[in-house]
Amino acid sequence: MGDLQRILAIVQEAQRRLIRIGVVLAAIFGFTLLVKLVPFRLELFGRSIPFAYPWPSPFENITAQVFRAMAHFLLPSNVTLLNVGVADSIVAQMEIGLLLTLVVGMPWIVHEVGAFLMPAFRTNERALLRTVGIPASILFAIGFAAGLFVLTPFTYRLLFEYVAGMGLAPVLGVQSFVTFTLLYSLAFGVVFELPVFLYALTRLGVVRASAWRRHWRGAVLGAFVFGMIVTPDNSGITMTLIALPMIALYLGGAYFAGRWERRRDDAGPPRLAAAGG
What we know:
Layout: H1 2-34, E1 35-44, E2 47-56, H2 62-74, E3 80-82, H3 88-117, H4 123-165, E4 171-173, H5 174-191, H6 194-203, H7 209-214, H8 216-230, H9 236-267
Parallel strand pairs: 3-4
Antiparallel strand pairs: 1-2
Helix pairs in contact: 1-3, 2-3, 3-5, 4-5, 5-9, 6-9, 8-9
């Protein structure tokens, strides 16, 4: 009966945490779809600072503003975006809204999930979470930013060079543009988590660092398979642009995992303090 009560308590706590996460994410998602940001300049201490205030607008909303900024900064100037399907623009706004919701709401998600799981962690696992938490967040942000602002524009320019070479009109569907851009950028964010994943498994004693080095060929193959899965186009270019950084990050993670093992082995097993007489 005691075990059943503990299980029910865990389920109730998980339900409570999920509801708290859902309420916050729903509020953020609704805000992105129902509100636009009106820019203005704030005069402060003799300086003009760009600012914005929210204003209700279900059509020209935050997701539409983000979409226009994406189209301006990521696509070549001669590319025309087309609303091919009837609901393509709505689906595109939903996808952008979901991404913005996850980005803005991620600290709250991490807080709630951590508060739920922390009592079940051992001391070394808690120390590991504190060690890799900030680097993992920074690496994801770097990977996502590199994918969105560097590699995605480069990929579009490269692909549309082939379009020009065939004498075709440089047009692109709205939903294809948004889906490719978000998946491509998120893929780079996930790829940049790879060193943290390898390091964490080695530090927890799940995988030896030598195993990462021994199976590097499988890692190379897996990188290309991952690149093929997450890129929605059929060219090998985008797959390769994801696979190559993934391989480099895998090797970097294997290096840091091995360095931690060497330091641990050099330090030797922990010695018990002598009891005082």
